[in-house]
Every structure is written in structure tokens, then in C-alpha cells.
Design goal:
Elements lengths: L17 H36 L4 H4 L2 H4 L23 H4 L4 E2 L5 H14 L17 H8 L10 H20 L6 E2 L38 E2 L9 E5 L2 E6 L1 E2 L18 H8 L4 H20 L13 H18 L26 E2 L8 E2 L16
Parallel strand pairs: 1-2
Antiparallel strand pairs: 3-6, 4-5, 7-8
Length: about 375
């Protein structure tokens, strides 16, 4: 389990600040060690003086029992932070860290993109005898199963498990050695269309072709740059409609080429993280925070087959990170805070014992199993 933080902690983007946190942690450790050293010397001098007054012999003072360092077993308590979690069986080294896209070196960015492209060459788990790929399984499961988790309690835990399955596939099917990455769009909220994730060389390509033919939805046009420019998608929502991977940046007024970011600014995120009840938190996480990106990027991202766009997974990993941050602010209930309706259009109430289903993509599990990202079932940190 991670170190909890108090409710007064404000949202801060963490991209690029890992080294500062590590330096601060190192300074705290050295400071603590210096204080303990002075304490040990004082104790030693007083002890020797008492033994001398008691008339102990010289050989007694030199015996192993008396020369043993009294602080030998005094292990310092490591400092804790959101990004340096050294508790619970040293989970900071036991569980790998998911990092923000722009903090990765180019070699790690390329390794991730290569693994995603590789998954498009592997056979489907759902229909192994078809010409569908392992990557195609994810848009299908999201549109046929994930659909029922939207606007309900399991929205966050279902997607947390979905991300875990995807990460596992990248590693086992394509030899990816890293972890999932997230896009902290709060860093780009003033000009989302200029985010590094849209870079054609070090990112996922940009907007659909300017002036190009509408392929899907209101504004979707073929992505013509970056590593996914030749990718195709078979479905648009639940309709079989083969087409090129499409995007169509648009703001709330319908202006093309621009994505509104005010709903995912640091101030907006802080307001969401400040909510105390899970049911209110998950509702605003979806209606305000989650929806801003699909409706802004549009194209394939705008429907329930959104995983065709590889940015879907960076977006949802960021959402998962925000849930993780919110859990930290609930030290008395962070791992059990859950409630609301069991699924979309249902009047049944949710429980931690509810199942998270993935059809044949992966075994069903209970919601309780994904509440702790550094527990027995999941093992990662942010």
C-alpha cells in the first residue's frame, strides 16, 4: 500500500519533478543519519564514564558486548511522497512506476510505440481463428462490455483492470520491458493540440488530415503522420465500418484544429479531487474529466471503440492515476471507498464483491482486487 497524504494536498503535475523529489528524500536521509551519529557519540561517552566510575576492568570495556554499535539496528524511516513509495515491503522497488510520456527518454518512447504496433500483428484472443489481431480485442471488449460500466460505479475499477490486461499483453506478447505510461494533459490544458503526445516523431501523430474527407463521426479524418498513420480500424462503435485511424480536433463550439482544455486544468482537477464521496467523485471524473479528451480529439476516440486510438490507454492511465491520488486523500477509507449503481441503466447498488468481467479476454475478478495498486493482485505505482 502507498503512503497516504492529507486532504490539504493540492494537485501538482509531476512530470519532470522526480529528480527533485529524490534529491529532497536523499537530503532528509542524510540529515537523519547525521543526527543519529551525534546521538551515538554522546551515549558512548556517557556510558564509558559510568563504567569507569563503577570500576569495571579494562578488558570488560573492550569485550564485544560493550563495543557493539548501539545504533546498529536503528534503521531510518524513509521519507514518503506520491512518487517515492518506500513502504509495505519496499513497494517502491517491488512495483514498477508508471511515468508521464514526456519524461521518458526517446528510446523508451520508441519501445512503447513498437510494442503497441507489435500487438497489431499478434492473433486475437477472442477469435484466434479469424484475421482479427490481439489489438482488435480491446476496442471490441470496451464497446461490448466496458460500455455498461460508464455512468456507474465500476467505471474506474473496470478500466483499471482493462489497463492491467493491456499492459500484460504488451509484455507477454511483444516483449515490452516497461510499464504503461500516462498523458498528464493538465500540463497542456492551455493548448492541448500542441501536446508532445501528438508529435509525429516522438509521439502518436497528430490531428486528422486538414481538409481531408470525413471518415467517421462529426469530424474524423485520416491520421496522416506519425507511427500510426497507416493503421486501420474495422469498427466504428458497434458498426462494422473499416476505415483509417481517424481524429478530428474540435472545440465545444465546433471549431476544428483546437481542443478545449479548461475542464482538465489543474484547478478543475483539484476541484474533482476535493470531493469526499466516491459516488460524486466517479461521476465528475467521467462527465467532466474523462469526456474532455474523447470529444476534443474526436474521430475514433469519440465512440466506445475508442481503444483503436492508442492515446486511449495514455488517457485512461492518467484517469487511473487521478483515482490513485484521490484514494491517498482518504486515509481512513481509500481502499474501500466505493459505491453507486452497479452498472449503466441498473438500479442495483454496487459492492466491492461485484465481478469485473472481460469475456474471454481475461478471467473475471472482484472489484476489491483492484482497489490497491500495490497489493497482491496489482503491482505498480505512480
Amino acid at each position: 500500500m502507498w503512503p497516504f497524504k492529507g486532504s490539504q494536498q493540492r494537485y501538482d503535475a509531476v512530470a519532470g519533478d522526480e529528480e527533485e523529489l529524490k534529491a529532497a528524500a536523499s537530503a532528509n536521509r542524510h540529515g537523519s543519519a547525521s543526527k543519529r551519529t551525534r546521538t551515538v557519540w554522546i551515549v558512548a561517552v556517557v556510558t564509558i564514564a559510568l563504567f569507569a566510575l563503577a570500576g569495571l576492568a579494562y578488558h570488560t570495556l573492550r569485550s564485544p558486548a560493550q563495543t557493539q554499535d548501539p545504533a546498529a539496528n536503528d534503521t531510518p524511516t524513509p521519507p514518503s511522497s506520491e512518487n517515492d513509495n518506500n513502504n509495505d515491503n519496499n513497494s517502491s522497488t517491488r512495483c514498477p512506476q508508471r511515468r508521464e510520456w514526456r519524461t521518458l527518454p526517446p528510446s523508451d518512447q520508441q519501445a512503447y510505440i513498437s510494442a503497441v504496433l507489435c500487438l497489431r500483428t499478434r492473433p486475437s484472443t477472442l477469435l484466434p481463428s479469424s484475421n482479427r489481431t490481439a489489438y482488435d480485442d480491446y476496442p471490441w471488449i470496451h464497446s461490448h462490455v466496458g460500455y455498461f460500466t460508464h455512468n456507474s460505479a465500476p467505471f474506474l475499477p473496470w478500466h483499471r483492470y482493462f489497463l492491467h490486461i493491456y499492459e500484460k499483453a504488451l509484455r507477454e506478447e511483444c516483449g515490452y520491458a516497461g510499464s504503461l505510461v500516462y498523458w498528464d494533459w493538465t500540463l497542456d490544458s492551455e493548448a492541448l493540440e500542441g501536446s508532445p503526445v501528438f508529435d509525429a516523431t516522438t509521439g502518436f501523430g497528430g490531428d486528422g488530415e486538414v481538409g481531408g474527407e470525413i471518415t467517421v463521426g462529426r469530424s474524423g479524418r485520416c491520421v496522416v503522420d506519425g507511427p500510426f498513420r497507416n493503421v486501420t480500424a474495422d469498427y466504428y462503435d458497434v458498426k462494422f465500418q473499416p476505415h483509417c485511424l481517424s481524429r478530428g480536433f474540435r472545440d465545444q463550439e465546433g471549431n476544428l484544429g483546437h481542443i478545449d482544455g479548461h475542464e482538465i486544468s489543474p484547478e478543475s482537477i483539484e476541484e474533482v479531487l476535493g470531493l469526499d464521496e466516491y459516488e460524486k467523485f466517479v461521476a465528475l471524473m467521467e462527465s467532466r474529466v474523462h469526456d474532455a479528451i474523447p470529444f476534443g480529439i474526436a474521430g475514433d476516440f469519440e465512440t466506445f471503440t475508442a481503444p483503436y486510438d492508442p492515446l486511449f490507454f495514455l488517457h485512461h492511465t492518467q484517469l487511473d492515476r487521478l483515482w490513485w491520488l484521490w484514494q491517498q486523500r482518504q486515509p481512513d477509507k481509500g481502499l474501500t471507498a466505493y459505491g453507486g449503481h452497479k452498472e449503466r441503466h441498473s438500479m442495483k447498488m454496487a459492492s466491492l464483491e461485484d465481478e469485473i468481467g472481460m469475456r474471454k479476454l481475461a478471467p473475471s475478478i472482484k472489484v476489491a482486487q483492484v482497489m490497491d495498486v500495490e497489493g497482491d493482485f496489482l503491482c505498480y505505482r505512480y
